[in-house]
Amino acid sequence: MTGRLEGKTAVITGAASGIGAGTARLFVEEGAQVVVADMQVDAGRALVAELGPRARFAEVNVLDESQVAASVDLAVSEFGQLDIMFNNAGIVGAVGRISEMSTDAWDNTIAILLRGVFLGTKHAARVMLPQNSGVIISTASTAGVLGGLGPHAYTAAKHGVIGLTKSVANELAPNGIRVNAIAPGNTVTAMTASVTSGDPNDLEKTNERIASMSPLGYAGVPHDIAAAALYLASDDSRYVSGHTLVVDAGQTTAGMTPNRMNIGSSREIHEAGRIS
Predict the structure, then answer these.
(1) Going by DSSP bridges, is the β-strand pair 84-87/55-59 parallel, antiparallel, or unpaired?
(2) Which of 47, 97, 210, 250 lies at 20 to 30 Å from 170 by C-alpha?
(3) Binning pLDDT at 50, 70 and 90, where does residue 134 land?
(4) Mean pLDDT computed over 199-213
(5) Could you report the per-residue pLDDT of 166-183, keeping only the tens digit for each?
(6) Taking the CB of residue 50, how many other CB atoms lie within 10 A of it?
(7) Is 206 a residue whose pLDDT tops 90?
(8) Is 3.40.50.720 the CATH classification of the domain at 9-250+259-273?
(9) Res 138 pLDDT > 80
(10) Residue 260 has pLDDT above 70, yes or no
(11) CA–CA separation, 213 vs 55, rounded Å?
(12) Catalytic residue among 154, 218, 231, 239
C-alpha cells in the first residue's frame, strides 16, 4: 500500500459491514487509525479485532446524537485528532407504493439517512473547525442523482445528502475543510442482496444480477467504493470540495433506462439487509 492516509484518524459510521467495513480495512491498510462506529456490536468488535491496534469500536446508532458525538470524541481521546469523517451508515428503509407507505417508516428512513449525516457532519465540524483542516465524506447514492433508482424515501434522503454536502462545503471551505459525497451504484452488499433476492446472505446471486445490468459487465463491490473514499480522504483530492463522486460503472450517464427497483409490498429494510 502507499500510506496515503499515514497518521490520519477517521471515524466511519456503518463500518461493521458492507461498504463501511471495506473502507475501514482500506483506510487502515493505507496508514489510518479508524473508529468503527456501528450499532452492530458483535460485527463491529470482530472487525476491530481483525484490524488491530489502530482501530477502536464505538457503538453508534446515528439517530442518537450523543452516540455520534461520542464516536468523534473517542477518535480525539484515543488518537489525538480527527481528520476524516465518513458518514456512511444507512438502510434501504421504507419500501412500497407511495399510497401505501407507512409514515413512521418514512420518518425513520429520512432520519437515519439524512439526519444521521447531519449529526456526523455537525460533530466532525465541531472538532475540525479549531484545527482548520479535515475531510467530511458522506454516502449518497445514484438514487440521489436520478429518480427511479431507489424507493421513494431513500431517493428523497439521498438527494438531501447531496444538497447538504454542497451547502456545508460552501460554509467550511474557508476553514480548510473539504466536504464531498460518494454516490455508489449497485454494489454487492448484504443490504443490496436483501433487495434483489430477499436474502441478505445471497451475495453470489446478487453479484450475478448486478453484473448483468452493469455497462462494464461486472458488479461493483465494497472495495470499489472504499477506493473512492480513499481518494476523497487523501491529499490527492486536495482541490476537490462540494463534489459528488458517482461510482456506478457509468449507469447514470450511459443513456440507459433506469433500473427501477421492484417496489413490492410495504416494508422496511434495515442494517445489513434485515427486513421488518
Answers:
(1) unpaired
(2) 250
(3) very high
(4) 77
(5) 999 999 999 999 999 999
(6) 12
(7) no
(8) yes
(9) yes
(10) no
(11) 36
(12) 154
Which residue shows C-alpha cell 463500518? 15
CB-CB neighbours of 224 under 10 Å:
19
Cell reading at 94: 421504507
Nearest CA to 86 among 189, 3, 7, 161? Answer: 161
DSSP the chain: ---TTTT-EEEEETTTSHHHHHHHHHHHHTT-EEEEEES-HHHHHHHHHHH-TTEEEEE--TT-HHHHHHHHHHHHHHHS---EEEE-----EEES-TTT--HHHHHHHHIIIIIHHHHHHHHHHHHHHHHT-EEEEEE--GGGTSTTSS-HHHHHHHHHHHHHHHHHHHHHGGGTEEEEEEEE-SB-SHHHHHHHHS-TT-HHHHHHHHHHH-TTSS-B-HHHHHHHHHHHHSGGGTT--S-EEEESTTTTTTTPPP------SSEEE-GGG-B-
- 239: annotated active-site residue: no
